[in-house]
Specification:
The complex is a heterodimer of chains A (about 475) and B (about 220).
Chain A lengths: L1 H7 L1 H49 L2 H13 L6 E6 L5 E4 L15 E6 L8 E10 L5 E6 L3 H50 L15 H51 L3 H32 L8 E4 H18 L3 E6 L4 E4 L1 H18 L5 E8 L3 E8 L31 H12 L2 E5 L4 E8 L12 H8 L4
Parallel strand pairs in A: 7-9
Antiparallel strand pairs in A: 1-2, 1-5, 3-4, 4-5, 6-8, 9-10, 10-12, 11-12
Chain B lengths: L2 E5 L3 H13 L3 E5 L2 H11 L3 E5 L7 H10 L6 E5 L4 H9 L4 E4 L4 H12 L9 E4 L2 E4 L4 E4 L2 E3 L3 H12 L5 E2 H7 L12 H13 L8 E4 L3 E4 L3
Parallel strand pairs in B: 1-2, 1-3, 3-4, 4-5
Antiparallel strand pairs in B: 6-7, 7-8, 8-9, 10-12, 11-12
Helix pairs in contact in B: 2-3
The chains are: A alpha+beta (about 475), B alpha/beta (about 220).
Keywords (chain B): DNA-binding, Phosphoprotein, Transcription, Transcription regulation, Two-component regulatory system
Protein name (chain B): Two-component system OmpR family response regulator
GO biological process, one term (chain B): regulation of DNA-templated transcription
Chain lengths: ~475, ~220
């Protein structure tokens, strides 16, 4: 099964195809080389036959016989043919048994079948030969047995075997190795993923330092897993927090109802109990509402409704809403607007975020303190800063306050559901802005956003006037 | 008598709503599903409709859409357990006039039904009167009898809203939504109370009859009758 899978694996099929192509190509190359060499050798042999024929024909008739036998004697490989025949065709000298009838005296070199005079048998072979009629009417035949062609084809074949087979095997081996490696990595990933699916969120894909696509992919997936693990852990934590925060008011409701049922004597008593119960349930509902709201914002579905939002207007509206509350607490709330600034976003959500920041700031600033709402813009970036003279947020708590339901111990007894800053964080994240909780003294939270090009008529307003206008009356 | 049709599938919720509204002097009919509710709405042409979003047979929003297609202009209050802003927007877009998220307080429901039944005001008027109070919508000035009241713009807006709905309970949620255009519940729960305190301080001077009343646990009324 595994073998079949392996053979059917894509990597292996590809290598096999490449190996086959390589083999075909090499075979073609060798055939070409063979053909070329063969051609060359035959041409050379033909030229040699012609030269020898010419040389012997020039000799005086008396020396011809000796020259032929000398020529044949020098031929140790037995590839040379030479013969002298008279006009009637009877052999006078040489090792050719009969004058081949196809051979046309004076014609070009051509292939003929020649029988060699050799004891004990007369065997015929195909030989390249040419004939020439001499001055005395005799016919001189010169030939050469071109067995080199066959030899060459053997050599080429051997070379082909020697070169191609190992190359082909190497190709297949490389393919096999590659596909086994890929299979193994996939198998490894599969096992880890199975573990992750089974619930082990700390598991990660194997990641080497090598810069290959597989490692990069593993890196990407691991990054995604990191993010998911954080989210899931946060959710798990939130589950506990929700349970706790819901149980507290529900416990109060339950106790109130139970005691009221037993002890209430008058209608007023019962009404008081009912009011308490309603209050507790309302608190529980407020938590659920806030959670749903957070989920809605985090689900990212509202980006479609984005438009240009004038932050200066939002700041003034928030200030307008919170001024009386700050005043009641003897906290000075003021707005300082550098110049008008527009960002791309959801007006209602941005209002909610800034209102939440101001709400928090006013809530945690002691009497006689100050809350400042600033808008700074340099044409590229817009900064909304909410600063106060309250206790601020300690370094250790800065991450935690953005988590849902986080409330530092000193806030435990202040009213609220503890989702304010996580809501702000979710809104800021949805917009792609940046939320910074700055170090003290006092509290300082900033939202940094890229600015929209502001229309021409929105010239920078007079900051002094703005400040004066929005200064909270004390 | 004002006739109201309630389309709601949960019997207990429906019972509570019917009892409460009947006690308040409304004549309430109840339909437990969308198709029956739509038929009843077409036959009896009530003065207002209360429609739950999730209904068996036919979705609440479909009922409203069908009615609006028939050119029925009856005011509709949509009830829903879906609280998300987008659902609210969708509910109002198909023709709902107001949207109330479950669970709700019965006073809130009654206040909103009463607000819906109130005839829309004439937007061409330039002055507004309620009892001894008078608003000049052009000059942005306010007086109580002979006494000038000096109001901040936000206080003027709040008083205008209340005078248009005098003698009617206005819940904190209604005020937040309508006057401050809030789409969420602020963390500070007494936000409205503080603003109302300011306004009351200016409207109800020493020795004058109290006009702005706090209804405990529910909201506020501008009483001029």
């Amino acid at each position: 099964m595994r073998q079949i899978e392996f053979i059917r694996s894509n990597t292996f099929l590809w290598t096999a195809a490449v190996a086959a192509t390589l083999a075909l190509f090499v075979a073609g190359l060798f055939a070409f080389i063979y053909w070329k060499i063969d051609d060359y050798l035959i041409m050379r042999s033909d030229r040699m036959i012609a030269t020898q024929l010419n040389f012997l024909a020039e000799l005086p008739p008396g020396r011809l016989n000796d020259a032929i036998s000398d020529h044949l004697k020098q031929d140790s490989r037995g590839v040379q043919y030479a013969g002298l025949f008279d006009a009637a065709g009877s052999r006078l000298a040489g090792n050719i048994a009969r004058l081949p009838p196809q051979l046309d005296p004076g014609g070009p070199v051509r292939s003929v079948r020649l029988a060699r005079v050799a004891a004990p048998t007369v065997h015929e072979a195909t030989v390249k030969a040419a004939a020439r009629r001499l001055g005395d009417g005799h016919i001189l035949v010169m030939g050469r047995h071109v067995d080199e062609t066959r030899e060459i084809s053997t050599v080429v074949g051997q070379a082909l075997l020697l070169g191609l087979l190992p190359a082909f095997c190497l190709c297949l081996l490389a393919g096999a190795w590659l596909s086994i490696r890929a299979e193994r990595r996939v198998e490894q990933v599969n096992q880890r993923v199975q573990r992750i699916v089974a619930g082990d969120l700390r598991e990660r894909l194997p990641q080497s330092d090598a810069d290959d696509p597989f490692a990069r992919l593993a890196g990407i997936v691991n990054g995604m897993l990191d993010e998911m693990e954080t989210t899931i852990n946060a959710l798990a934590g939130v589950g506990n927090d929700i349970a706790h925060d819901l149980r507290t008011p529900l416990t109060r409701v339950r106790l109130a109802l139970e005691r009221g049922r037993t002890h209430a004597a008058t209608l007023e008593d019962l009404q008081e109990v009912a009011d308490k119960a309603i209050g507790g349930i309302d608190q529980a509902l407020a938590i659920i509402t806030a959670l749903l709201r957070l989920a809605e914002i985090e689900s990212n579905s509202r980006t479609a409704g984005f438009g240009d939002v004038a932050l200066d207007e939002i700041l003034r509206q928030v200030c307008d809403v919170y001024e009386p509350i700050a005043e009641d607490k003897d906290v000075a709330l003021r707005v300082a607007i550098d110049r008008k600034a527009e960002v791309r976003g959801d007006r209602d959500l941005l209002f909610e975020a800034i209102a939440n920041l101001v709400d928090n700031a006013v809530k945690f600033t002691p009497r006689g303190g100050r809350v400042t709402l600033e808008l700074m813009s340099d044409g590229k970036a817009v900064r909304v800063r909410v600063s106060d003279t309250g206790p601020g947020i300690g370094e250790s708590e800065r991450e935690a306050v953005l988590r849902r339901f986080y409330r530092s111990d000193k806030m435990r007894n202040t009213p609220g559901v503890g989702l304010g800053l996580s809501l702000v964080a979710a809104i800021v994240k949805l917009h792609g802005f940046r939320l910074t909780i700055c170090p003290g003294p006092g509290g300082r939270v900033e939202i940094l956003a890229p600015a929209r090009a502001v229309a021409c008529n929105a010239a920078p307003s007079d900051p002094a006037r703005e400040r004066h206008e929005s200064l909270a009356p004390l | 008598m004002t006739r109201i049709l309630l389309i709601e599938d949960d019997t207990e919720t429906a019972d509570a709503i019917v009892s409460e509204l009947t006690e308040r002097g409304f004549e309430v009919r109840w339909a437990p599903d969308g198709i029956g509710g739509l038929d009843r709405a077409r036959e009896s042409s009530p003065d207002a409709l209360i429609v739950d979003r999730m209904l068996p047979g036919m979705d609440g929003l479909t009922v409203i859409e069908a009615l609006r297609k028939d050119q029925v202009r009856t005011p509709v209050l949509v009830l829903s357990a879906l609280g998300a802003v987008d659902d609210r927007v969708r509910g109002l877009r198909v023709g709902g006039d107001d949207y109330l998220t479950k669970p709700f307080a019965l006073v809130e429901l009654v206040a909103r039904v009463e607000a819906l039944l109130r005839r829309p005001f004439d937007s061409r008027e330039t002055t507004l009167q309620a009892g001894p109070l008078e608003l000049d919508l052009i000059e942005r000035t306010a007086r109580r009898g002979e006494r000038e009241i000096d109001l901040l713009p936000r206080e003027f807006r709040l008083l205008e809203y209340m005078m248009r709905r005098s003698d009617q309970l206005l819940t904190r949620a209604m005020l937040l939504e309508e006057v401050w255009n809030y789409k969420f519940v602020p963390a500070t729960t007494n936000l409205i109370d503080v603003h109302m305190g300011r306004l009351r301080h200016k409207v109800d001077g020493p020795g004058e009859t109290q006009l702005i009343h706090n209804v405990r646990g529910s909201g506020f009324i501008l009483r001029v009758r």
